[in-house]
Amino acid sequence: MTDTNIHGTGPMADSAGTPKDGAARKGTTASAQGGNTAPSEPGNRRTTPVAADPATASAGMTASAGPGDPATASAQDRSSRHSGPLTTRRARKRYWTIIAILSVAAVGIAFGLLAWDNPLPITDEGFWLIAGLRGRSLVVLIIVALCQAFATVAFQTVTNNRIITPSIMGFESLYVAVQTSAMYFFGVTALVELRGLVPFTVQLVVMVGLSLALYGWLLSGKYANVEVMLLVGVVIGGGLGSVATFMQRTLTPSEFDVLSARLFGSIANSDATYLPVAIPLCLIACAGIYLSSPRLNVLALGKGVTGNLGLNHTRETIKILVFVSILMAVSVSMIGPMIFLGFLVAMLAYQFSDTYDHRYVLPMAGLLGFVVLGGAYFVLKNIFYAEGVVSIIIEVIGGGVFLFVIMRKGRL
C-alpha cells in the first residue's frame, strides 16, 4: 500500500520523499506550459508553489497595487496623455480649475462694483437704477481688460518677445501728445471739449492710420524686419514724448493740473458716448485674434518655420498687428495710458495656462485682465476713495513684476 502524506509523496517518489527524475521532468514541463502549480499526476497533492511566468507575476503585482499607490497614479497619468495643448489629465484639471476660480472672482468683483455702498436692498427697483448708473464703468473695465490682454499676448507672439508690449509702438505717447497739444494751442476750454464721439473717433483713426502706415512701410518690401519696426516705433514714441514734455513746461500751473488729470489712466476719462464705437471694435478685433489662434501658434515658431509650414509670415503678422492697433487705440482713447497692465496680465496668463495654444492663453488673459483691473478699481474707489485712478496700483505692481522678470537669472 502506498504511503501518502502532506508533502505529496506518491508512488513516483522514493523513501526520502524526493521525486524521481521522470516525475520531476514531467512536473517541470507541466509547470512551464501551464504557468501554475498543477500536479503532475492525479494522485499528487503537491503544495509547494512553482515559479510563475514573469509577465503574469508582474500583472498580479500591478493589480494588487491600491488606487492611492504613487506608481498606479503615475501609470494612469501616463495612460491619459495625448498630443494636445494640455497633455495630461492633471494639466487639464489645473487649467479649468483656475478658469473657474477667476470666473467666480470676476463675477464677485462685478457684483461688488454694482452693489457696494448701494443704500437700497437688492429687491428694490432703485437698487437696479443705481446699479445701471454704475454699469458704464463696469463695461469700460471689461473693454479695457480685453483690449490690453488680447493685444499684448498677440503682439508678444508676432514679435517673438515676451518682454515688450504694444506701448513700444508709441500709442501712449501719441495720446499724450494729442492731449497736450490741445491744451497748449487752444487752452483749457478746448481740452474739456475734447470729449464725445467725434473727437474719440478722430483719435482712433489717427492712431490706427499711423500704425498701418508704419506696418505697411516697414513690414513690406525686400528688407522687411520686425526688429526695425520696433526700433522705429521706439523712436517715434520718444520724439512725441519729448515734444509733449516741452509743451507741458510752458503751461501755467492750473493748466498743467487739469492736463495731468487727463494723462493718468482713469475710468473717469471715459464717456458713455464712446461705447457705441468702442464695443463693436473691441469685439471684432478680439474675435479676429482668437480665431487666428492656430496661426498665432505657428507664428510663435519663428519666420523660417512659419514659411516652411505654408503660412505667409508677413501677411499674417500685418493682419495681427492691425487688430492689435485697433485694440490699443480703443483702450488708450477711452481711459488713457496704462503701460504695464498688458505685460502683467500676459505674464500671469502664460504661467497659469502653462500651454503654447492661444485658444487657452487668450481666455485666461482676458479673465486675468478684468480681475486685476476691476480689483484695482474696486480697492481704489471704495477703500482709498481715489475715484477710479487705477493706473497707480497697476504701474507699481506691473513695474515690479517687469523688473523681476528682467532680473531673474540674468536673462530675458
TrEMBL record:
Transmembrane segments: 95-116, 136-158, 170-191, 197-218, 230-252, 272-291, 320-348, 360-380, 389-407
Domain of life of the organism encoding this protein: Bacteria
Presence of the UniProt keyword Transmembrane in the record: yes
Membrane topology, as annotated: Multi-pass membrane protein
Record's signal peptide: none
Bias-annotated ranges (Polar residues): 28-39
Low complexity bias spans: 54-67
Localisation per UniProt entry: Cell membrane
Protein family according to the UniProt entry: Belongs to the binding-protein-dependent transport system permease family. FecCD subfamily.
Protein name per Swiss-Prot or TrEMBL: Iron chelate uptake ABC transporter family permease subunit
Originating species: Brevibacterium ammoniilyticum
Organism phylogeny: Bacteria, Bacillati, Actinomycetota, Actinomycetes, Micrococcales
